[in-house]
């Protein structure tokens, strides 16, 4: 059996030969115009690991988009408290009390603990927002913070970071949220824990389990009228049990139903669901993960296909240790190759429907020829359909046979039975009248440089404010 050689991403695409990295700094990428165009290289299937940050836009992002899609009241129904009354600096890590986990242009995140706990302290991540800009009214500033908080607070799913409290401290607003001890998937991919062969820590089954958890989390959001609009490895965290958690709702959009901050919603998402409100043209998200219809900025768009596209990019980046392209624009070599494959195939298949068989899907370059099994390859191509109205929905991905067959170790929802079956032990008596869950032991190994786990945990800072 011939094995195709894959060139895995190296030092994050920096090219400076210096592996030293400040793990607490927010990751930034250049604008589309500043990203270097890589030379054609048939031996390298990806564009490498590209650091990203959430892009603001003139339209279609943050509060501006929400004003266009529905009217918000002057006051949100949001309770707040004084941070110091309920939380304290953590004493769980000696010498690192209140340690800063991440800094950005709009916020910084620190680790704290709930007051009144002594043993097995309940650690939380506290996101402190920057002060109001000079050209920004106090009302707009507070609305932006409360809008993001009320959306995040309304979400309750095993694959979504739990938001706990809105607090104030010394004139600054703070979001208190679940602390995910094992950090971002970006860091784990960068450490080559997903690399193929003997060097990789995570197996293909692990990778598929993470993918299914992501799909479940996004399906929960969409079924409750919320689009994330910035799905990427940096915004996917691992909690203490090794379960995937979607974080950072700084550019999330309420595309249907009541905004959770409205009194009519009572703090819940998915109330009075109805027609889909489109987002105004404008880039929203992080460049390697943004769908082409959003980058074109030609028309209003449904934000749900954007999330589907981003989930597929996450899978490819996680699988091959690098982004498939710098941005979904024809001037970039990798995307141009992908787009040509689709254009050629659509000429002979104008209905755009992928099917089983040799000519059942477009040939989009070396990267896509390496995806196995074939059913997953076809699914990823359906998620990356260049025409958003023909792109598979997130619910349809979960209903495919290949995704249903993925053994997932995380409960599907909070009502799911807690029973688990250890997939690593072949001989284990089945339990009657329970749903099987599989333990894949996703907890990553400690990094060789002995950096504390808190320091490997970074947050994107919600740069999607206008």
TrEMBL record:
<feature type="compositionally biased region" description="Basic and acidic residues">
    <location>
        <begin position="36"/>
        <end position="45"/>
    </location>
</feature>
<protein>
    <recommendedName>
        <fullName>non-specific serine/threonine protein kinase</fullName>
        <ecNumber>2.7.11.1</ecNumber>
    </recommendedName>
</protein>
<feature type="binding site">
    <location>
        <position position="127"/>
    </location>
    <ligand>
        <name>ATP</name>
    </ligand>
</feature>
<dbReference type="InterPro" id="IPR000719">
    <property type="entry name" value="Prot_kinase_dom"/>
</dbReference>
<dbReference type="InterPro" id="IPR011009">
    <property type="entry name" value="Kinase-like_dom_sf"/>
</dbReference>
<dbReference type="InterPro" id="IPR008271">
    <property type="entry name" value="Ser/Thr_kinase_AS"/>
</dbReference>
<dbReference type="GO" id="GO:0005524">
    <property type="term" value="F:ATP binding"/>
</dbReference>
<keyword id="KW-0547">Nucleotide-binding</keyword>
<dbReference type="GO" id="GO:0004674">
    <property type="term" value="F:protein serine/threonine kinase activity"/>
</dbReference>
<dbReference type="GO" id="GO:0007165">
    <property type="term" value="P:signal transduction"/>
</dbReference>
<keyword id="KW-0067">ATP-binding</keyword>
<comment type="similarity">
    <text>Belongs to the protein kinase superfamily.</text>
</comment>
<dbReference type="InterPro" id="IPR017441">
    <property type="entry name" value="Protein_kinase_ATP_BS"/>
</dbReference>
<dbReference type="Pfam" id="PF00069">
    <property type="entry name" value="Pkinase"/>
</dbReference>
<keyword id="KW-0723">Serine/threonine-protein kinase</keyword>
<feature type="region of interest" description="Disordered">
    <location>
        <begin position="1"/>
        <end position="53"/>
    </location>
</feature>
<keyword id="KW-0418">Kinase</keyword>
<feature type="domain" description="Protein kinase">
    <location>
        <begin position="95"/>
        <end position="403"/>
    </location>
</feature>
<keyword id="KW-0808">Transferase</keyword>
<feature type="compositionally biased region" description="Basic residues">
    <location>
        <begin position="19"/>
        <end position="29"/>
    </location>
</feature>
